[in-house]
Request: fold
Amino acid sequence: MSNHSAARAHTNIALIKYWGKKDTEFILPMNNSLSLTLDHFYTDTSVTFDSSYTKDTFILNGKEIPNENVHKFLNIVREKAGISEFAKVNSTNHVPTTAGLASSASAFAALAAAASKASGMNLSRRDLSRLARRGSGSATRSIYGGFVEWQAGDNDLNSYAVPFIENVSWDIKMIAVVINSKPKKITSRAGMQTVVNTSPYYNSWIKEANRSIPLMKEAISKQDFTTMGELAEENAMKMHALNLSAHPHFSYFSPESIQVMNLVEELRSMGVECYYTMDAGPNVKIICLGKDTASITSFLQKNLPNTEVLVSSAGPGVQYLD
Reply:
């Protein structure tokens, strides 16, 4: 037996974030989240199951590396598909890995799509979303394009993402300010679990995040950019406040992160409407409208001449390349 498939999935950035799991094995989140899939960052992955293979092989950006998470994920695929063959996975990441730019979202969404098809499964997008979640929580949202909601659920069957607005007509942009593309010192998994276990404010976070979801959906539906931006910025800062309240406390901020946030606030004071968000890493994402992109990027490059600034639009859902 030899079966092959290849897929592409894009990263997504959560506007209302999930930060903490109620179940670490099945990766069930404590709260719903809502994201925007981006066109600029993506992962291409091919998977081949072959009876001649004696082990799983994972190649990332042309280099074979051991990866226990990929092996565990392939075991889940094999169990669901009822096969026993090992696999060769060849992945090219067009996004800095583990730097807070959602590389795991695109990586496991692409792997889920390619592996499920190569193993003979014909999964619906909902079931593909459920499968991707087993590799990385945020990957469940990268199955879809545009604005996507991850419904937390309370078990493996009812925790999955659903599209909110896939075909985005709104000229919304996300500017990634790449301060540091190196792997972060504290992984998302370790950081969020520390927060869940030790932050005295965690229950308030869940209530606030779930309260913000319908407000964010209403703002997006009405193309109310001000409300959308304010909600996203507040949600991100509340998430990072949890990290500072944990034991031991930790932070993903760097001095440059704070500098970028100050520059965004300065732009707002100048009448240019834009908002920032941050995930588990130092890189800042700026939400803006297309008409303001040039002035924002020019201002950033003037003040941070050695920093990479990348502009994204709303991106598509998972695509098969074969």
